[in-house]
């Protein structure tokens, strides 16, 4: 076979041979006697081109070897000579060769063995090309950079941390090269155990912003196939949570997250992770306003100087209510050219101004991201529609509507390893869709743990979440006196509004056999409530996606939700008259959001639980059968990635 043919196979976009070559590439270093000069040492992922190294550099090395004296046979001989024992050869070029090499190496001499390899290569070429064309339709890999204020398990306050801790791992498992950039929070300590695995890269970057030069340092951990990069600066070391302390949000949050965005734009260019940088052809996923300056910086600071011309950016909106709005005078601190003020300019409506001389002028970082990003995403299809409405757009609905053509909504997935009733380490009894016995045992165990009467036939309702207006806490408080007149038990887990926390304690004291209010948040307890309750209540005013209803369905707990955002997308209302397997539903979604509608939905669910056991069993099993894995969501994300690169980047 001629060198040009070999090169054609190695340089094609197919992953047919790539997956097997990757095994060689990862394992050759550990094979005894292997000539390391054949394959450059790098941890890069296989890619369809030579962006910064990885398979591209391996491909060049192979091609150069094949062009030397003796052609490909000499190249094969050099591989074989690099092994002291041909039995060490386990994987090369494909499964068929893998199996044949083991047989041939035991029964033939070196020359016959090489001939056998070459023959199989020739025989498999047509099949390889067919597989390549099929794979090429569905698989293109990218260098992806997540920029986020939080990423579990390193830092987390809510769903944003869950998403940015799980989706990157799934994308990495699907062949992409993935970096996640977030702050290194130390909470007032010299070190934080959450970041114990991260090492100092000894790479520092100076950033011009806020009237001076700030120096940041990068820490790095390679885990689960992802490069976790942490930006270190004294602004992230103070006591408190990620965004504030007991006195409220930090006054310098704009500075803290502008610094993160500047550092995130530099990291792919300067950090030689695994031996080489990510380079300029990256796809940035900026999450919420904290990362909203990234698309703006790409247009204002980098592309205008010929850098990141092939990069793309996507702003992912997890909660439009938080936009990063600050006084207009702070624009000069962001490190942007003066003529870019219009991209971030924001004017409050008259009714929102604080005094007669207030002009309402401000800068809005999320607005700047929506203007300059190549695509816009939300965490559910329903929320993508809601943010284009007056009620759900928080003043940005007209701007978002004008960019509707690049707006997509994809429902979040869940970590099915952590949330699995058949293996969950936090629950005493395990169960599955095929054997639900453990579900009743979990309920009895929860009742015992909370000192409630153990009543198998009494419906148990749970609430898990923040105690604030968005979550509909006021409706729960208003409805509780009527609800507690029924034969039910109610368990609440959460923290937030102090008055609601006090109300929970008082209600528990007055109704000790029916109501439990657990103030605070406890992960193991949240798992046990999800497994032990029969019904999960989520009367949220708006819910971009929501995760608790997904956890509940996976555990056979029936969600009763307000029909909004991601709740509308993921919970199908029960229809007792539907034909088997067609729209029978997984819970109850009520609307409008009133106490009366919520009580009606809850009492319908309670009646179904008590009087229609077969229908209830069907609800449980249909919920448990839903596919809300991150793999399913990742496929949809990849479609949006392709659309982002199909269009030219944003250039003003």
UniProtKB/TrEMBL annotation:
GO BP term, pick one: amylopectin biosynthetic process
Record-level GO cellular component terms: amyloplast; chloroplast
Pfam families assigned to the protein according to its UniProt record, in alphabetical order: Glyco_transf_5, Glycos_transf_1
Stretches the record annotates as Disordered: 49-70
Domain Glycosyl transferase family: 454-575
Enzyme class: transferase
Protein name: Starch synthase, chloroplastic/amyloplastic
Gene source species: Papaver nudicaule (Iceland poppy)
């Amino acid at each position: 076979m001629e060198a040009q043919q070999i090169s054609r196979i190695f340089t094609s976009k197919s992953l047919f041979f790539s997956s097997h070559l990757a095994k060689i590439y990862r394992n050759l270093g550990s094979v005894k006697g292997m000539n390391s000069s054949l394959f450059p040492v790098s941890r890069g992922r296989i890619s369809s081109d030579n962006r910064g190294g990885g398979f591209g550099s391996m491909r060049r090395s192979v091609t150069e070897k094949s062009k030397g004296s003796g052609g490909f046979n000499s190249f094969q001989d050099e591989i074989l000579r690099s092994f002291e024992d041909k039995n060490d050869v386990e994987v090369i070029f494909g499964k068929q060769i893998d199996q044949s090499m083991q047989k041939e190496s035991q029964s033939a001499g070196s020359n016959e063995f090489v001939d056998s390899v070459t023959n199989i290569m020739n025989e498999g070429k047509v099949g390889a090309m067919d597989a390549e064309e099929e794979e090429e339709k569905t698989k293109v890999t990218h260098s992806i950079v997540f920029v986020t204020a939080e990423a579990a398990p390193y830092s987390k306050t809510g769903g944003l941390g869950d998403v940015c801790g799980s989706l990157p791992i799934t994308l990495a498992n699907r062949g992409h090269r993935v970096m996640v950039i977030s702050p290194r929070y130390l909470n007032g300590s010299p070190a934080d155990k959450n970041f114990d695995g991260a090492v100092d890269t000894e790479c520092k970057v100076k950033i011009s912003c806020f009237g001076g030069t700030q120096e940041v340092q990068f820490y790095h951990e390679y885990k689960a196939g992802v490069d976790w990069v942490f930006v270190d600066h004294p602004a992230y070391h103070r006591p408190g949570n990620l965004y504030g302390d007991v006195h409220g949000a930090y006054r310098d949050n704009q500075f803290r997250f502008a610094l993160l965005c500047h550092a995130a734009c530099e990291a792919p260019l300067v950090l030689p992770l695994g031996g080489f940088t990510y380079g300029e052809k990256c796809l940035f996923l900026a999450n919420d306003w904290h990362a909203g300056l990234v698309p703006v910086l790409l247009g204002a600071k980098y592309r205008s100087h010929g850098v990141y011309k092939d990069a793309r950016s996507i702003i992912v909106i997890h909660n439009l209510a938080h936009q990063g709005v600050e006084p207009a005078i702070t624009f000069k601190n962001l490190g942007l050219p003066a003529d870019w003020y219009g991209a971030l300019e924001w004017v409050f409506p008259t009714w929102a101004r604080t005094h007669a001389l207030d002009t309402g002028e401000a800068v809005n970082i999320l607005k700047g991201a929506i203007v300059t990003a190549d695509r816009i995403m939300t965490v559910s299809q329903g929320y993508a529609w809601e943010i284009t409405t007056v009620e759900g757009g928080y003043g940005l609905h007209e701007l978002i509507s004008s960019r509707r053509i690049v707006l997509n909504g994809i429902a979040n997935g869940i970590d099915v390893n952590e949330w699995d009733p058949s293996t969950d380490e936090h629950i005493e009894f395990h169960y599955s869709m095929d054997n639900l016995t453990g579900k009743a045992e979990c309920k009895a165990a929860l009742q015992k743990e909370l000192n409630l009467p153990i009543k198998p036939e009494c419906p148990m309702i749970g609430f898990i979440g923040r105690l604030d207006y968005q979550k509909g806490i006021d409706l729960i408080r208003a409805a509780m006196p009527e609800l507690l007149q029924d034969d039910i038990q109610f368990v609440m887990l959460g923290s937030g509004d102090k008055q609601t926390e006090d109300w929970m304690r008082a209600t528990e004291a007055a109704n000790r056999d029916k109501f439990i209010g657990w103030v605070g948040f406890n992960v193991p307890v949240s798992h046990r409530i999800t497994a032990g309750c029969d019904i999960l209540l989520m009367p949220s005013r708006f819910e971009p996606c929501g995760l608790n209803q997904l956890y509940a369905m996976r555990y056979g707990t029936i969600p009763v939700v307000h029909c909004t955002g991601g709740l509308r997308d993921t919970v199908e209302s029960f229809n007792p008259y539907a034909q088997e397997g067609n729209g029978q539903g997984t819970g109850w979604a009520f609307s409008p959001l009133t106490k009366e509608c919520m009580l009606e939905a809850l009492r319908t669910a309670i009646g179904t639980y008590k009087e229609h056991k077969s229908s209830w069993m069907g609800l449980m099993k249909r919920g448990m059968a839903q596919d809300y894995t991150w793999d399913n969501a990742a496929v949809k994300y990849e479609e949006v990635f392709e659309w982002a690169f199909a269009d030219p980047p944003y250039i003003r």
